[in-house]
Amino acid sequence: MATVLSVSGSPSASSRTGRLLRHLDQRLIAQGHRVVPLDVRTIPAEALLGADFRHPAIVEAAELFARADGVVVGTPVYKASYSGVLKALLDLLPQYALTGKTVLPLATGGSTAHVLAIDYALRPVLNSMGAAHIVQGWFTLDKDITVGEDGSLTVAPGTAEALGQVVDQFSAALRRSPVLAAAS
């Protein structure tokens, strides 16, 4: 069983990105993985913006990354890039915080004009942090994610199927990971 860190880079408590990640976490749990959620917005702003590497919340976040076998990184797309709070956290992690890890990048946004944000903005940063394997990411349009009055989440059928496939590919890549194979 792999430990997966599921990171929401949304600054909003009611974001579609965060809700989508928590929805996908359930699929990973059903596949036998242990999932640890991390909402970057819960890290104190003074720690993120003040680049306080020693702040307990930053130290804890770095430890979560270190203990994870795989990382799912989800972000809304703003101005053709990933969120500022996610950038602030990634900047405070050790340079090679993703060494040996399998990573799944996900993004949400209002327009298909932002679909390449994963490949041109997020993937290079994840790669520079030493990720062993970055699986194919997925961009989901906001209109394909509906949050009900009761907080329930509905994903448009075609999008749900595609997301299921990328999560399954991530899960399979985790199982093939040399780090996990060595631990067995």
TrEMBL record:
The keyword Endoplasmic reticulum does not apply. InterPro entries: Flavoprotein-like_sf, FMN_Rdtase-like_dom, NAD(P)H-dep_FMN_reductase, NADPH-dep_FMN_reduc_SsuE. Its EC number is 1.5.1.38. It comes from the Bacteria. Pfam families: FMN_red. Residues 3-144 form the NADPH-dependent FMN reductase-like domain. Keywords: Flavoprotein, FMN, Oxidoreductase. One of its GO terms (molecular function) is FMN reductase (NADPH) activity. This is NADPH-dependent FMN reductase. It comes from Streptomyces pyxinicus.
